[in-house]
Structure formats: structure tokens, C-alpha cells
Design brief:
The complex is a heterodimer of chains A (about 110) and B (about 190).
Chain A lengths: L3 H16 L4 E2 H11 L8 H13 L3 E7 L5 E7 L1 H26 L4
Antiparallel strand pairs in A: 1-3, 2-3
Helix pairs in contact in A: 1-4
Chain B lengths: L2 H16 L7 H17 L4 H12 L2 H11 L2 H5 L3 H28 L15 H20 L4 H21 L3 H4 L4 H10 L2
The chains are: A alpha+beta (about 110), B mainly alpha (about 190).
Chain lengths: ~110, ~190
């Protein structure tokens, strides 16, 4: 299981990257993260929404109310221009950390 | 009401009591809870177990409220980039001025005694507000260029004002400014 701090820090870049594929809603976002991480990134469901609302306030994503195929009300989130910029920054930073770690591992220090 | 609906209603009450605002985001949270319950029901759990495990997976109401409070901070509201921050700051300033001006006009027209009237200058505050808004647009244009951005700036500022009013409309007065019991009882009697 991943450390709580790492899970929290990865929430924003993961949400932005998932929304870059197209609009989505809270439940689907959680399920996709769970699936893609093989169940290792298991967010507490309720914690996703403050993050989504914070990102909406910051102008990174936008929300609209819609309906599912079964007629259930849903709040859909989509990426905004500022969100794309933030996502690019996140990728750059995470790739930097990854490359440093990978380099050290290659040299067998990790 | 079925047992399951009763459990969901109790869960909503707990969320409200912890300070989660209704209808948004509480409705959104409930929709999520129901979807998770459905998934657990399909996997073979009975209704009550599906509800309890989904509610547990949701996390404690107090922690969620604390996270929402962080999300509503002024810096988060002001926005991620410089243009958004400028738009929102100007929108807030012209909203305050405009409201003050309108109140001045309404009170003047209502024919109240002179002591209760606002200062005559208040009638002109909407003009100042409009000027502030124009300055906001001009500042955005000077800083970021492009005449087409005028429409975007106006749209953003109007959206901020809309959200601000919506925020006032959904303010939970009873929770933040609770009335004494005696007053509440009298009010109920007055309104039947």
C-alpha cells in the first residue's frame, strides 16, 4: 500500500491526466484509478470531492450537471486550459523525480 | 421509507451535521454512495452490508468537511493563473460597489426619513462600479493582449458574480446563526 502523503500528492496529476481523455465524474475517476493501479491506489471515496472542488475553484477544471444512461443525475468534470498547463507541469516534475530515481537504481544505489 | 432509504437519510443528516453543504456537494456525495452501493449489491452483498461498507469507504464526515473548508480558501478561489486572479478581484470589487449603489437607490426611492437615506453619492456608485469593471477589462487587455479576450473577461467576471450570489443564496443561516429555541417556536406559530 502506498504512503498517505504520496497518494495525496498524486491525486491532482492523476485527476488532470484522466480528465485529459475526456470528461468524467467522481465515481468513474475513483474506479479508473483503482483499476489502473491494480488496487494499490485506493482513495477514500469522500476525499476525492474536496480535491475536485478545489481544482474547480482554481480554474483547472469545470463542472456541469448531466445525466447517466439510466437517468441518474451526475456531476461531470472536464479539463480547462489552465488544467492542461498544470498537467504538463505535473508531468514534468514527476518525470524528473522518476528519472533521478531510475538513474540511481540503474547505478544500484536504490 | 425502506430501511435502506432510512439509512441513507441518516447518513445525509450526519454529513449535514458535520458541515457539508447542501444541495452541492451533498447531492454529489450521495450519488457516489448510491453507485458504490449498487456495485456492492451486484457483487452479492445484502442491502445493509452494502450500505455500511460503502459508507465506511467514504470516510469520516468531519475529515471530508475539513478538506472542503481548505478547498474554499480565498487563494484557491482567486484562481491558478494571473489572468483569473485579476478577473476575479475586479469582479469582486465591482460587485461590492454595484450592490452598495443599488441599495442606495432602493432606499432613496423607498421614501424613508432623511436620516435613514444613504448618502446622495451612493446613487452614483453603480457608475463607479461600471468604471471598475471597464478598468478590469482594460487591465486584462494590457497585460495579456487581444481584443477577443474582452468577451472572455466579461464572461468570467459575470460568472464569478453569479457564483457569489449563489453562495449567498445557499448560506445556511440556521446553522451559522442559530436562533434561540423560543424565537424558533414563535416563528413557527406565526407562520402556522
Amino acid at each position: 500500500m502506498l504512503r498517505k502523503e504520496l497518494v495525496a500528492a498524486s491525486a491532482e496529476p492523476l485527476i488532470l491526466s484522466l480528465l485529459a481523455k475526456g470528461e468524467s465524474y467522481g465515481y468513474a475517476i475513483i474506479q479508473e484509478v483503482k483499476e489502473r493501479s491494480g488496487g494499490k491506489l485506493n482513495w477514500t471515496d469522500g476525499m476525492l470531492y474536496p480535491v475536485l472542488h478545489r481544482m474547480e475553484h482554481r480554474g483547472l477544471i469545470k463542472a456541469r450537471w448531466g445525466e447517466s444512461e439510466t437517468g441518474r443525475k451526475r456531476k461531470y468534470y472536464a479539463l480547462k486550459k489552465d488544467g492542461k498547463t498544470a498537467m504538463a507541469k505535473h508531468h514534468e516534475h514527476w518525470m524528473l523525480v522518476h528519472s533521478v530515481l531510475a538513474g540511481l537504481k540503474k547505478e544500484q544505489y536504490v | 421509507m425502506s430501511d435502506l432509504e432510512q439509512s441513507i437519510a441518516t447518513w445525509r443528516k450526519q454529513m449535514l451535521a458535520a458541515g457539508i453543504k447542501a444541495p452541492v456537494p451533498l447531492d454529489e456525495l450521495e450519488i457516489h454512495l448510491r453507485e458504490e452501493m449498487e456495485r456492492r449489491l451486484k457483487s452479492g452483498l445484502d442491502e445493509q452490508s452494502a450500505f455500511e461498507s460503502a459508507a465506511r469507504q467514504f470516510g469520516p464526515a468531519q475529515t471530508i468537511t475539513a478538506e472542503f473548508k481548505k478547498a474554499a480558501g480565498l487563494l484557491n478561489w482567486l484562481g491558478e493563473n494571473r489572468q483569473t486572479r485579476i478577473n476575479r478581484t475586479f469582479a469582486l470589487v465591482w460587485l461590492v460597489l454595484f450592490t452598495k449603489g443599488l441599495m442606495g437607490i432602493v432606499v432613496s426611492l423607498a421614501g424613508l426619513p432623511p436620516n435613514f437615506k444613504f448618502h446622495w453619492a451612493a446613487d452614483f456608485i453603480p457608475v463607479f462600479a461600471a468604471l471598475v469593471m471597464l478598468c478590469g477589462i482594460a487591465a486584462s487587455l494590457l497585460l495579456f493582449g487581444g481584443w477577443l479576450k474582452v468577451l472572455r473577461v466579461i464572461r468570467d467576471q459575470l460568472r464569478v458574480v453569479g457564483r457569489f450570489w449563489h453562495g449567498i443564496g445557499s448560506f445556511d443561516f440556521q446553522r451559522h446563526l442559530p436562533l434561540p429555541d423560543a424565537f424558533a417556536k414563535n416563528s413557527k406559530a406565526d407562520f402556522g
